[in-house]
Amino acid sequence: MTMAAVSHQTRKTAQRLGLFLASAALLGLVIAFGVGVGELSIPLKTTLLAITNRLGLTDIPLNRIHETVIWDFRLSRALVAACSGAGLAICGAVLQSLLKNALAEPYVLGVSAGASTGAVSVVVLGVGSGAVSLSAGAFTGAFLAFLFVAVLTNGARGGNERTILAGVAASQLFNAITAYTISTSASAQQARDVMFWLLGSFSGVRWPEFQLVLVVVLLGLAVCLYYAKALDAFIFGDDAAASLGIPVGYVRLMLFAVTALMTATIVSMAGSIGFVGLVVPHVMRYFFGPLHRTLLVACAMMGAIFMVLADIVSRTAIAPQSLPVGVVTALVGVPFFAVILYRSRTAA
Amino acid sequence: MSIRAENISWRAGKKCIVNNVSLEVKNGQTLGLLGPNGSGKSSLLRILAGLRRPCAGRVLLDERDIAGMAKKSVARRVAFVEQHTMTEANIRVRDVVKLGRIPHHSPLSSWTQEDEAIISAALERVEMRDRSEQGWQSLSGGERQRVHIARALAQSPSEILLDEPTNHLDIHHQMQLMRLISALPVTSIVALHDLNHAAMFCDALIVMLKGEVVASGTPDEVLTEAMLREVFHVETRIEVSPYHGKKHIHFL
């Protein structure tokens, strides 16, 4: 290899690293901003000091109410939003690559429909008679739906079309059960609560949720990055991947299971927030190309930033009421995506 | 013996696609697979590449059964170029060829200068070096095929299997590619439709019909007017070319 090529390579690596650090800094800033915005407005400086105080780096007395709002409500919420956005974007990227389908998204395997059925069973039917939380019900439902798909597709070895069809079938089935339950058993208020939850919201998430979602998303990202080369090998199809020595069936099942676990965890906390998992991977592919080591990290950063911003908008747009965050992701995201689609059309 | 197949059969559902096929290729030789559409050539190549498991018989690489080898070690010595490979992704040419280095790496290892040198050499061989930064979607069908072959070469294989590699290529690149394949120091098995290419570039030929081998041997032995009439239902006159000394087939 020539010296020029070497320096070109190092320059590109340095560029990527710079971008990564810049986006990490931006994420931190967005989270701090998110903590400050709301009914009770808190200056950025107070937010940063409250965090450094808690970490034991500083010891500056602050307004107790501010500190409580920051620490007990908004910071955990912003961090859960960041992890959820990152996780959904990663899942979307992996599923789009594995299924070779541009419309694939985290919910393509029926996970969100299963989660809604689980949540409704708990809220409306009172399954578990109070001992089971809505989140646990949603998680169970999500995993049942994934199992349903896995069985139908013979452990995801049945080919892409069959996997997608099985996912559609699972979604239809579980959505039907949800709708049936709501229309036969729910009171108007229960129906409204469930609808709101289905569209997604980060209200009510606290530190325990953050710990769980952080662990799941980081582990998920690590597994997906471990398989980054294998995912690259899928670019030309399953046989091409197999001829490069990838154990196709095993990798597919593994990655389907990991994405289902991530999605189920996120959905059980925040409902099925649409759009992020579908669109962030496309936008990142447009900027960074289809190779997964870069793509997955980019998706994680962008998904996190986007979701924190969407959550801020959902809290403040029609304050004191809040919009479902899924509505915001779509309303804000679609115009942005339209521009990218339009530009890629003219570029090609 | 570089690669050998013993009595392999393979079924898709109830239909027998490959029926009791045996073959062997010596190191560095080029074997041509001939036969009409649906005669089982592509399926046979997939079995030889280890992508399908035969329901009977076995494939041996240097006398080792492929069924007992790790997928990765098979991929380090057998490269396979499929007939139709599509992608929506706009991956760079150089990155496609880099995929060929995957079997030589563990999941977390990073690319080395040796990888880069092998990738550049492979691109050079198919005359695509100056296009290495270009995106996949901007390539013509023939260019894509050449990049796939470069990817296969980057696997540093000792056997390379190609399924109708000259499809989509113009005549210059057809000739260049067939010359390249026959000159490669690796064992090649090539499914072909062009009978004159088979005569000119292959060391040995196998003719398949309905999943079975109906003729095998050197091009001189195999390519006869009677065989072509029986297998392909075409009338031909075959003569030895005064230019390259190999058989040349005229279609009537």
UniProtKB/TrEMBL annotation, chain B:
PROSITE patterns: ABC_TRANSPORTER_2. One of its GO terms (molecular function) is ATP hydrolysis activity. Residues 3-235 form the ABC transporter domain. SUPFAM superfamilies: P-loop containing nucleoside triphosphate hydrolases (SSF52540). Belongs to the ABC transporter superfamily. Pfam families: ABC_tran. It comes from Franconibacter pulveris. Keywords: ATP-binding, Nucleotide-binding, Transport. This is Sugar ABC transporter substrate-binding protein. The lineage of its organism: Bacteria, Pseudomonadati, Pseudomonadota, Gammaproteobacteria, Enterobacterales. PANTHER family: ABC TRANSPORTER ATP-BINDING PROTEIN, HEMIN IMPORT ATP-BINDING PROTEIN HMUV.
